[in-house]
């Protein structure tokens, strides 16, 4: 409430002016919590630092989670640290609990995951051997729980 899209865009542009591009290590198809995702094949402090900076910098634009959302997250069996982050930032998987990933599937049975994982790895092929350049941020909009729509891409300086 009280935030406007233009103010958010200006904040994203100011944030990006202070950042430099960097490279993620090559990605790999990995099982995470029952689903498959692309994750860096080794630790990448640059992406973790970027994620933490985004959480802090844009927190004023965040709508506080409603009580039902908080209850649902707490019922999922959070660690004490995740519960603390949920109270502070409205989400338990930020800061030191963040793990960069790009989700590829929904939750699957272990048998199905074992079949799908090599297919996805083959589909991505040689792209998995290359580092991924991170050159800016993308701003998305979601209306009424619908799909995310890209509204703007902003390059780092």
Keywords:
157 residues, 7 strands, globular, 38% helix, alpha+beta, 3-stranded antiparallel β-sheet
Task: Tell me what you see in this structure.
It is a single chain. This protein is of the alpha+beta class. The protein is 38% helix and 22% strand. The chain is built from five helices and seven strands. The strands form three sheets. The chain has a three-stranded antiparallel sheet with strand order 2-3-4, covered by helices on one side. Strands 1-5 form a two-stranded antiparallel ribbon. Strands 6-7 form a two-stranded antiparallel ribbon. The two termini are 30 Å apart.
**Average pLDDT metric:** 94
Report the β-strand fraction as a percent range.
Answer: 15-25%
Annotation field: number of helices: 5
N-to-C span: 30 Å
Largest sheet properties: 3 strands, antiparallel
Helix content: 25-40%
Low-confidence parts: none
The helix/strand series, from N terminus to C terminus, equals HEEEHHHEHEEE
Shape: globular
Radius of gyration equals 17 Å
User: Would you count the extended β strands for me?
Assistant: 7
Strands side by side in the biggest sheet: 2-3-4
Output the structural class: alpha+beta
């Amino acid at each position: 409430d009280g935030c406007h899209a233009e103010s958010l865009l200006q904040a994203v542009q100011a944030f990006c002016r202070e950042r430099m591009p960097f490279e993620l290590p090559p990605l790999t198809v990995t099982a995470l919590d029952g689903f498959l995702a692309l994750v860096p094949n080794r630790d990448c402090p640059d992406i973790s630092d970027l994620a933490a900076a985004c959480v802090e910098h844009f927190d004023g634009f965040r709508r506080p989670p409603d009580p039902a959302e908080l209850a649902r997250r707490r019922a999922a069996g959070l660690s004490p640290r995740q519960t603390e982050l949920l109270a502070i930032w409205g989400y338990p998987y930020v800061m030191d609990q963040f793990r960069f990933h790009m989700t590829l599937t929904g939750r699957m049975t272990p048998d199905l995951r074992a079949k799908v994982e090599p297919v996805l790895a083959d589909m991505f092929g040689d792209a998995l051997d290359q580092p991924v350049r991170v050159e800016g941020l993308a701003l998305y909009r979601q209306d009424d729980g619908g799909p995310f729509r890209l509204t703007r891409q902003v390059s780092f300086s």
